[in-house]
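Researcher: Sequence of DNA 3'-5' helicase follows. Predict its structure.
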Amino acid sequence: MDDLLQNLNDQQKCAVTSPHPTLQVLAPPGSGKTKTLTARVAYLISKQGYKPWNIIVCTFTVKAAREMKERIRGIVGEELEKKLQLGTFHSIGRRFLVSYGHLIGIKKGFGIADSSDTKAIVKRIHKRLRSPLEAGKIASRISRAKAKKKRPAEFHGSKKIEEQDFARIYEEYEATLASSNLLDYDDILLRCVELLHNHPECVANVEAVLIDEFQDTNIVQYELMMLFAQHRQRITIVGDPDQSIYSFRSAEIENLNRMTKDLKDTLSIHLEQNYRSSAAILRCASKVIQQDANRIKKPLTATHCLGQRPVLRKLPSATDEAAWIVTEIKRIKTLAGSLFHHDDFAILLRSSALSLKIETALGKAGIPYRMVGGFRFFDRKEVRVLLDYLRVINQPNHNDALARVINEPPRKIGEATLRELLEEAENKKVSLWSLVFAIAQCRGNVRTKVSASALKGMQSFVNIILTCQSKIKRESDEIFSLVNLIGTIIDKIEFRSFLQKRGAGKDEGEDFEARWANVEELLAQATEISAIDALGLEFPDEDLLEQMETGPSPLEETLAQFLSNVALSSNAELKDADGEATKQVTISTLHGAKGLEWPVVFIAGVYDGSIPHSRADDTDEERRLLYVGMTRAQSLLYLSCPLNSSRESDSEHAVSPFLAVPELEPYCLQQGPSISMAIIEDLARILRRDCPSDRTVIDGALALERIEDDLYPLDGSRLGYQAMSWE
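Model: Prediction complete. Tokens:
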């Protein structure tokens, strides 16, 4: 423990060891906030004698939770770390609902409706009610309403017809979730608030609450924090108002002020030293964020050398911008010897819609790249099919999962038949499973008529589900695991053969090979993710477990936990089997880059209308978003502005007003830096890497046709570009 404190600066030590019950640690980018929060948790356990199962630590991502658990394990040991209540707000909320949800009427074995389920339910209700509202926006509108704790009744009373229509869909949506024993993401938090408000004894043991990325909390999460800590009011939060960029998720930057008003003795500690970026990058980023006159002024000191000034590059068009980025990546990577690899480069965008030209240019140049927040692993068709089978086995009343797989592989059950069954189930207020089961058993009063072939298909499907359910209920069968269960599904539905037929004729079987590799990855994830310490989704065997009633069989609980983990996880935080072997340039949105860092960062499309976005309501938040992007860079930062959307276009762009201010000019270069050995040594020091040899650097320079960034004119004019093209 003493060794840990020796590695902290004075402000970090103060935050870690403060005896103050309520603490706000304001931590700007690169100031070691995770290290500080981790050290405080370890300090409370090792020095203050807090029991880890009486400490709640909330993070915003699974990745952050895992990283923190690993760090704490290295300090206090695995035995104590495993007993810590650490996870995302949603995972911790789920734990309380699994253990105590029956106190507020939540049925055991509830499932979680993921975003795909939510959209499918809303789409079906929208169609049935023939609503005039725009279908694609209703699900997010319901989520925003829940984040502000607004129920359907509040919209029913509105005089606006549009809000009354929304209320009807919202109400039907809630009824559909209830009939399927599902909670959506927002419900997990709302119902946990309800639980802890009505039954404060559920958190009577909690001695301390610590919250990461506090500036991203919404109203419900703030209330949940206060309820977690209601008995002792010992709270530590870490946050930075300059990085509040999630208002579209209902995040409330005002929660920082709300906390100091509600807890008047709150002590604020400012972390001031940046350990990530060069001084030149920090100076430029600070000039951007300081344009917000209403922000809390906070000092930020670089611990690295000055380094190279950021580049603000004007290009004739978005096509030229993409080509320039590729050229500059090649130039810097080659001139710096062995200092940089492809995975040291990131290209950040205000919107993923801007990525096409950049992806095309990278592809033509043979530069490997990956998209952060791209297609989720668990949303891939072949993976989704198996997960939906698991959902139906775990929870037969999950209508949407059942509807997706009852005819996968094909069982002669047509879309019209399925649509009629869904409508009948909704009208009768029963589950789709109850109708399908009744038809398969040739009994019950089911209005929908099915063909003989469809009947045979339903009987086959029901038999598979019942067989798998019987296997997982055998508590004494210790050999049968979650992996065995998935294997049973694969065998019963002849999934390998199905995928081979689907992939026939596509690139000589490459489609099948890729899909089957995803199935194998799912089996690997089933082994890893379902482990208790993967996400910390269960209470440890301590005081709180004594109140729990006898639950389901071990495999039933493992299955339920696995499906919950899938619903609460994002693909960016799981192993990427495709990306491990090759070092790849990262393409990400600015939002998706939060919490990450790279040696070299390009922020493309920095024009007015993109950043700030033309549809943005909050200009200050757009400025903070740019600031977050700029502070992802460690050694080199590029900002590029295409003056036209294409070479043929006459629509002109102006440089973002956040960057067009005269005060910023001295802090930026107009073109990429000239690379000398002295500069390479500076870059190596900032990155704490070995400097390449003179010979390596010279060989790199000789291999390049152009060693300077001089292909495009500095003013971004087309005339200069066209002249150069003719030459």
